Amino acid sequence: MKRLLPHDDRWAIIFQDEKTRLENILGDAVIRIHHIGSTAIATLPAKPIIDMLAEVSSFKNLEAHNQALELIGYEARGEYGIVGRRYYKKHQTPNDLGFHLHAYLENSFQIKRHLAFRNYLRLKPEFVQKYAEIKNQYCDVNGFLSGDYQLAKKPFVDALSIEAMEYFENQ
Questions:
Q1: What is the pLDDT of residue 1?
Q2: Looking at residue 148, what is its pLDDT?
Q3: Which of helix, strand or coil describes residue 41?
Q4: pLDDT tens-digit map of 80-131
Q5: Does residue 5 sit within a domain?
Q6: What strand order describes the sheet that includes 74-76?
Q7: From CA 169, how far away is CA 143, in angstroms rounded?
Q8: Quick one: which of 77, 82, 86, 145 could link to 149 by a disulfide (CB 3.0–4.6 Å)?
Q9: Which has the closest alpha carbon to 160: 39, 15, 38?
């Protein structure tokens, strides 16, 4: 069962360490790796999973490194329900953190959407507070999430993603 934890400032450091590890393995198969998701937003509670977004120029070049990624614990899952994505999951580590790597071709709509959402939340603490309230509604007293969690937060995430993209397009 998944838990929602208070924000931990160490998540940014852990992301940087994992990003460096991935860049060393993937080399020029990756253009950039971004920290996304709730662990990338200060003060926002999150599941203990570091979400990363990789911009790539070619899925073929990325997938050529699947075996090397497996050696450090990543499982390649293909598109995993989202067309135009390559998804990798690293199961939880001894410090109880997991990693998700979402790879998209450079200039993908999904890259723009994820980064706009993250950056908008970083600019607008009132939305971080609202998002935290929505998340906390689906936790028990020990922070364990109910099965409705993903579905419950989707309307907020979708609406804020649109607002964020419009905001940055007009800047």
A1: 56
A2: 82
A3: coil
A4: 999 999 999 998 766 678 999 999 999 999 999 999 999 999 999 999 999 9
A5: no
A6: 32-36, 49-56, 98-105, 85-90, 74-76
A7: 36
A8: 145
A9: 38
